Amino acid sequence: MPVPISYSFRNLSTRRFTTVLTVSGMALVVFVFATVLMLEEGLRSTLVTTGAYDNALITRRSAGAEVQSAVDREQAAVAEMRPEVALDGAGMRLVSRETVVLISLNKRDSDKPSNIVIRGIGEQGLPLRPQVKLVAGRMFRPGSSEIVAGQSIGERFIGAGIGERLRFGMRDWTVVGHFDAGGTGFDSEIWGDNEQLMQSFRRTSYSSVLLRLQDAERFDVFKTALENDPRLTVEVKRESVFYAEQSEVLANFIRILGLTLSIIFSTGAVIGAMITMYAAVANRTAEIGTLRAIGFRSRSILWAFLLESLFMGALGGALGLALASLMQWVSFSTMNFQTFSELAFSFTLTPRIALWAMLFALAMGLLGGFLPAVRAARLKVVDALRAA
Amino acid sequence: MYFLKLIARNSLRHKLRSALTTLGIVIAVLAFGLLQTVVDAWYAGADAASATRLVTRNAISLVFPLPITYRDRILQVEGVRTISFANWFGGVYISERNFFPQFAIDAKRYFQIYPEIVIPPEQLESFLRDRKGCVVGRKLAQTWGWRVGDVVPLRGTIYPGTWNFTVRAIYEGRDAATDEVQFFFHWEYLNETLRQSAPRRADTTGIFVMDIDDADRAAQISQAVDATFKNSLAETLTETEKAFQLGFVSMTEAIVVAIRLVSFLVIVIILAVMANTMAMSARERLSEYATLKAIGFPPRFVRRLIFGESITIAVVGSVIGCLLTFPVARAFAAKMGTLFPVFQVSTQTVAFQLVAGLVIGLVAAVVPSIRAGRVRIAEGLRAVG
Amino acid sequence: MGTMVEARNLSKSYRRGGQTVPVLSDINLDIDAGEFVALMGPSGSGKSTLLNLVAGIDKPSGGRLRVNGLDIATMSETQLADWRAQAVGFIFQFYNLLPVLSAFENVELPLLLTHLSRRERREHAEAALEMVGLSDRLKHYPSELSGGQQQRVAIARAIITDPQILVADEPTGDLDRASAAEVLGLLERLNAQMGKTIVMVTHDQRAADAAHRLIHLDKGVLINGQRDAQPATRAGLS
């Protein structure tokens, strides 16, 4: 016959100060744990949604990022003429030849520099990316020295606001519009006319070529054809896959650092729970003796104390998650190690993360409460009653 | 003396509890120290910077090259003593995971500008003679088991193709803070290959590094260099080496800030644990405190007993944590390998750790000591522990 | 000899919930120096409260209380602490020894509040322990002593500063017959030979028998009047 659950729960509320402190410690650890997972998830979801599944991105073989890549005109032409490439309503091939460079801009609040991606796009650049929408001003005119910036770049960096000018490649470029890329990597970019940018930077080859496939499932055919062509030294990836891969190093770094920290911190919280539970057992020795004398078995005592500890874990987990969910209002931007450029992302809470956080919290409760509960269960009835 | 005796014995009263609490503090102080050291490691490049070195890069961003012809013109600027240059190679050794920095340099003068890179003279000679040779740092060589004479293949990403280099020299850092994970080879070799395969990219470099005669004139000399190239195709940005390095750090600033915040969070977590321990102990001993007050000891005696015990446990824990930080940091650095070339526990970190321990001991005791000091004797005597 | 304890219209009440609960009402009492009195009464009668007031560890709500001439009802907490240190010795039902200190160190404890040197403190403590018959147990910790022995250590601690008045709250409450008898004998000797005034709260009839005078309380009032009508069972007043 188990000891009623309310016994465990009420004992927690009688010693409020102790319970609050122990639960707070656990909550903070869960907060760190959940926040790290949320950051990693935010990074992944930003980059995974950056590309489209039915778009193919062509770069030079072995180039890790578009900035390092070079695709010359002949190679671009070969790729564009493939039958798998989609056409738009007017019969034009849905292709954008693009140039990607980094420029150093200073932040408005701290005046510290960051590398921002400048992407020269072709006419089809915007249609190929339906997730990007102009939200202020207008699109740049082809053939001009006008550029448009991601809204968050416009807000955070000097020179990227509408009407402001940036100077590079011996020209002044005027920002005429801001776009919202729906929380993808493009939010951290500035776009302009590809031919103009290439002229300005004296380039003769593109960084990459983006195109849409008529049938997304024919991607492998397309890829094999181009990669096996002896005239070409290119690599073909689905746009979504390409950008997802660009998050790997940073995501791994965040995850490993975060998990290591969480495990170390959780040791502290588990110790806190152990101290609390050992004290609970010691203070209620007489009670335990009484319960045993009444007829409850030692296993029930074990469960009763373990439940108390698990309750604390659950409370800590809920509180920590609640705190972590507040982080969703915070945005995070840093240099992506792989692309060397600024990337803004945020903390994303998913049901999976919430589940992991609660399990983590319960695990802490379990570990902290186990040994004390065993001690409680092992008390000899006679000794326990004598302590009264 | 009596007082200390009481504190010491009270601390040892509940051996398991005191041991667990101390363990918690050890872990917290250790984690705090490690995280602060990680932050320090982030700034290692900036800290190792010399006040008499300047770095010139393309004003647009590091991604754009500078013409090699700039070299002679920069040398003309007053105050510039020696000039060399370097291209970031960005190659891959076997897999992307095995990251280490590789530079194509103007060898002879580069090592003059960086005297902290210490190369045995015969090895330097043999490197200068072999245009496909390379100079690698000691830690890097250790990680991969390279010895002088080994051939190291790198897969180019910025400069495509497979490049083979022969290890001709292994350098040591003069100071503890010197990066020993770098890989240098001849710019000449890169350039002559580019002239053949991609002529438009030849005769350029990523950065110029200069040694100047007077550190106080760094700002003026920097401006003079930039003025030389204003309104040309490749405008320059010249800054001190420290500013250059700090530029990198600031790009990943969010991560550094996050790590700093988390390191303080661990202190808060363990503070909650410690406060709990002290509160429980104080509550259990309430009748003893009441007895002391009844006998005539003033409330501050009782308060000091609790503070004393809390601080003793905290200080013991933090001292152990400080001592453990060193071997743990070494193990961590070994594990991280080339990611953190310099990983040193600074004296400032140790000071912070000790202060953190003290703060934990003090703050944890505040509420329990006030409560115990205020205990009404009659009630306290009735309290059953 | 003089009056040691003089209480006039003494009252004490507590606030519980929003209400005021009276514990002692209108107590008028005289205790002479050198008397050995027992406070008796059913549970809730206020006897322990009265003891606490006399000992200066609680403050009255109303009335006047003089102990050895001092008006302790108006003294501040700090003054009371200092006064207790030299004037009052405490004996509790559960001994209230500090478990981390040895018998010797427990006895020495009150002397820390004085300016005596370490050697002087040692002499006093050893003397006190000898008086209670525990010289051979100096280094033992409370957990290593029987109930009776612990109470005797407590008594040694209570007398070490040579206080004028000893207050005892159920001193034999937790002891077996033999130990109780030992402790009571000790108290009697302290009273008879050293002239200590002893105010004792007790349920125990045997303890009551050791006292000169019984004072009864019920529901916070004295059952008998100022000078107890009941004759003392032992002579002893000089």
The mean pLDDT of chain B is 91
Order of helices and strands of chain B: HHHEEHEEHEHEHEEEHEEHEHHHHHH
Oligomer status: heterotrimer
In angstroms, what is the radius of gyration of chain A? 30 Å
Indicate the low-confidence ranges of chain A by residue numbers. Answer: none
User: Major beta sheet of chain A, specifics?
Assistant: 10 strands, mixed
Bulk shape of chain A: elongated
Question: N-to-C terminal Cα separation of chain B, in Å?
Answer: 27 Å
What structural class is derived from the secondary structure elements of chain A? alpha+beta
User: How many individual β-strands of chain B?
Assistant: 12
Low-confidence stretches of chain B: none
Report helical residue fraction of chain B: 55-70%
SSE class of chain B: alpha+beta
Q: Sketch the topology of chain A as an H/E string, one letter per element.
A: HHEHEEEEHEEEHEHEHHHHEEHH
Binned strand content of chain B: 15-25%
Shape of chain B: elongated
How big is the Rg of chain B? 30 Å
Describe the structure.
- The complex is a heterotrimer of chains A (388), B (385) and C (238).
- Chain A is an alpha+beta fold.
- Chain A contains 12 helices and 12 strands.
- Helix content of chain A is 49%, strand content 20%.
- In chain A, strands 1, 2, 3, 4, 5, 6, 7, 8, 9 and 10 form a 10-stranded mixed sheet that branches.
- Chain A is elongated.
- With 385 residues, chain B is an alpha+beta fold.
- In chain B, the strands form 2 sheets. In chain B, strands 1, 3, 4, 5, 6, 7, 8, 9, 11 and 12 form a 10-stranded mixed sheet that branches.
- Chain C has 238 residues and is of the alpha/beta class.
- Classes of the chains: A alpha+beta (388), B alpha+beta (385), C alpha/beta (238).
- Chains A and B meet through helix 2, strand 2, strand 3, helix 8 and strand 11 of A and helix 2, helix 10 and helix 11 of B.
Q: How are the elements arranged and paired?
A:
The complex is a heterotrimer of chains A (388), B (385) and C (238).
Chain A lengths: L4 H10 L1 H33 L6 E6 L12 H8 L14 E12 L6 E9 L11 E5 L8 E5 H6 L8 E4 L2 E10 L8 E5 H7 L7 E5 L6 H10 L5 E5 H7 L2 H36 L1 H10 L3 H29 L4 E6 L4 E6 L4 H28 L2 H6 L2
Parallel strand pairs in A: 3-8, 5-7
Antiparallel strand pairs in A: 1-9, 1-10, 2-3, 2-9, 4-7, 5-8, 6-7, 11-12
Helix pairs in contact in A: 1-10, 2-7, 2-8, 2-10, 2-11, 8-11, 10-11
Chain B lengths: L1 H10 L3 H28 L1 H4 L5 E6 L7 E2 L2 H7 L3 E9 L13 E4 L1 H7 L3 E2 L2 H9 L3 E5 H7 L6 E6 L4 E13 L9 E4 H11 L6 E2 L1 E6 L5 H11 L7 E5 H11 L1 H32 L1 H10 L3 H38 L10 H27 L3 H6 L3
Parallel strand pairs in B: 4-9, 6-8
Antiparallel strand pairs in B: 1-11, 1-12, 2-10, 3-4, 3-11, 5-8, 6-9, 7-8
Helix pairs in contact in B: 1-13, 2-11, 2-13, 2-14, 11-14, 13-14
Chain C lengths: L2 E14 L2 E14 L3 E5 L6 H9 L6 E6 L2 E2 L5 H11 E4 L11 H6 L9 H14 L15 H13 L5 E5 L7 H18 L2 E5 L3 H6 L2 E6 L2 E2 L16
Parallel strand pairs in C: 3-8, 3-9, 6-7, 7-8
Antiparallel strand pairs in C: 1-2, 1-4, 4-5, 9-10
Helix pairs in contact in C: 4-5, 5-6
